[in-house]
Amino acid sequence: MLGTALGGRYRLDEEIGRGGMSTVYRAFDMVLERQVAIKLMHREIASDSDQLERFRREARAVAQLSHPHIVTVIDAGEEMDGDPVDGDSTHPATPYIVLEYVNGETLKQVIRHRDPLEITEAIAYTIEIARALGAAHEHQIVHRDVKPQNVLLTEEGTAKITDFGIARSLTEEGLTLDGRVLGTTDYVSPEQALGHKVTGQSDIYSLGVVLYELLTGEIPFTGPTPVAVAMRHVREEIPDVQRRRPEVSAATAAVLERATAKDLARRYPDIPSLLADLEEVLAIEAARAGQTTGEVTSVLRTLPAPARARLPWRMRHPARWLATLVLFGGSLALVLVLVANHTHSGVPPDVDGKQGLQPVTLQQTSAHDYNPYGNEPEHETQVANVVDGDPSTVWSTEHYREDSFADKPGTGVYLDAAPGLRARALEVQTPSPGFTAAVYGATRFSSKLPYEATQSLAARGWRELAPPRTIGAQTTIALDTHGARLRYYLLWITRLPPNSETAEIAELTLFK
């Protein structure tokens, strides 16, 4: 067939896929001068009226759908195998569908060479597929064969679902016999495996299995035959994703469990309810990761406001965050040059403003309050604010009268920079300047020693990296780690601002 011009317009250039019903070609539209994909039905199958009608139905079904995550139908036609004889309307014809050409890998190919995907990336792709299925379901079309092989990734990384070859409109009579299973059994829903009524919830189950594979690099069930695999989907629960990948959050595991529930009453009833939870857990996983790239960043921009509110400020407003870094970059370098030339013992000998500094990205769970000389935590529910990238959110000490704090060696916040680094500077942003603080570091420290005012920080495992100094609205403190890689960095507050009962910290940023 290569070189053939279907309809006198579409030249077949290369075979790029083959299935039981059709072959897919990369083709060239000689009228509009662009590449397209042609799905050409096998001639021997075209003589089966049911199969022919199913193929035509796919063209009609997908032609109704216009969505950025669905491969677009451009045209359809039938190529006659010679000239009709004596008006014979049954003369063989080969039907074809013209689709947009997506020059990229399938999601299955990506899984094979990137086993497994990043957690945020897996969820982002699942969201894009879910949005596509939601658009199809709104048109009463169920895909019925959701699998990574049917998801194409564009050169930009966007997911597009294709192959509605066994899709079925809920408003049409079906062509399959009762009890006949259509779909790939690795991802088949229990009701579809049993030949029962198939609805949008079946697509949700299959998408849940896809998410499991994206997170673990493995399909949940294997067996000697496709029927054996299908029966495992009917009888067995999907394996616990956290056992195979412990870093997956409980929230993500709960969404996966509900999407793949055998009981339809427990499974998500529709795509919007699934999407709402997927968007929430993407924000949760992105906040835990601390940074995102590629398609994850694109999907994060599209999250609704409630989900985006879970993200750190720097991820909600990346352009403003970068502008802030650029704005303060020059002044930071100047400050460090001046500090490096200072002679006090807190200045490391290797700080050189000309070399530049790199901010260290920390997870939102890396900040902890530290009150070893008191019986209660210091606003531990606020402490994540010091690393959320949002200067408008703060952590503060408890309220102290000046005389009561004078009897206290200090209190503070420490950052867990696991597994450790040689930090060269710590930047402090505060809306309450004027307090006094020093910086300490440790590879390990004791947080369980009993309250004892005479017990020094050194005895608890901390070493001084910078002596006490007055903290301004934005202060960069050079650190002397003596060449050691330290995991913990403590801002130790020893005096409150004048005439104030609290000290507040908006942001703490480590630089290396």
Overall description:
The longest helix has 23 residues, at 318-340. The chain starts with a strand and ends with a strand. 30% of the residues lie in helices and 22% in strands. Mean pLDDT is 81; it is low at 83-89, 169-182 and 338-355. The protein folds into 3 domains: 5-100, Phosphorylase Kinase, domain 1 (2-Layer Sandwich); 107-311, Transferase(Phosphotransferase) domain 1 (Transferase(Phosphotransferase), domain 1); 328-511, Galactose-binding domain-like (Jelly Rolls, Sandwich). It is α+β, with helices and mostly antiparallel strands and 512 residues long. A 6-stranded antiparallel sheet has the order 1-2-3-4-6-5.
Largest sheet: 6 strands, antiparallel
Q: Give the helix/strand class.
A: alpha+beta
Instruction: Provide a count of the helices.
Output: 15
The portion of residues assigned to helices is 25-40%
- Tally of DSSP β-strands: 20
Distance between the termini: 61 Å
Task: Describe the structure concisely.
The protein is α+β, with helices and mostly antiparallel strands and 512 residues long.
